[in-house]
Amino acid sequence: GFTLAEVLITLGIIGVVAAITIPNIINNYKRKELHTSFLRSVSIFKNAINTSIDEYGINNIEKISPDEFNNEFLPILMSKLQVVKTFEIRKLKSPYSISNYTKTYSGANTCFSTDRWDNKSQSYLLKDGQHICFRYLDGWENVWFAMGIDTNGFKGPNRYGYDVFEFKITDSLYPYTHANGQYCSYTSSFANHQSNGRHCAYYALKDTNCDDNSKGYWESLKF
After folding, report:
1. Cα separation of 180 and 136, whole Å?
2. What per-residue string of b and e applies to 21-45 under the rule 16 or more CB within 10 Å gives b?
3. Predicted TM-score (pTM) above 0.85
4. Per the omega criterion (within 30 degrees of 0), is the bond before 175 cis?
5. Are the beta carbons of 98 and 164 closer than 8 angstroms?
6. What is the pLDDT of residues 104-142, one digit of tens each?
7. When you count CB atoms within 10 A of the terminal residue's CB, does the N or C end of the chain come out lower?
């Protein structure tokens, strides 16, 4: 038989191993779930936008005005999706607050968290739980219509680069990025910026770590 001391030592070892492995198992499951939801969202919205552009009869949405986008194109797009509720952005209170990629800034710069844009400040909850919004970007990063996608809606973590991503709409749906790609980093000087996470869709689609391209994007997510 085993002595009491041997049993206690064995239980202690099992406890230590469990404390190390169980969090890793849980976090790996979260990463897989977020990755799957992301790919599904991109497929759904890319197809819906491509079909809507064809139906609208124009080859590039950049050629239309914000009013035309809101009043003419957006209703066509919404007809392809199962919208169950429309929100006024300014009324979306906590706990629905988007944090940046490093979770160091609450109220990150997304179309879910601002009323500065000329899209009537609305967001749309879909039947499958996804939450989307739109905004018109007219600034140093060129001009286009941007689409924010929360792949699992109010479920969380409501975090840029995890379940919240931003895309641009031109002749299709593309990841929103910039030549420097600085707004998707744990380590750069922009890590704590309110827009950190804005460029993450690009890296998420490539499955490449934004700080170290020898690693995968999704396996590198930190919880």
Report:
1. 21
2. eeeeeeeeeebeebbebbeebbebb
3. yes
4. no
5. yes
6. 988 788 888 754 544 457 899 999 999 999 988 765 555
7. N
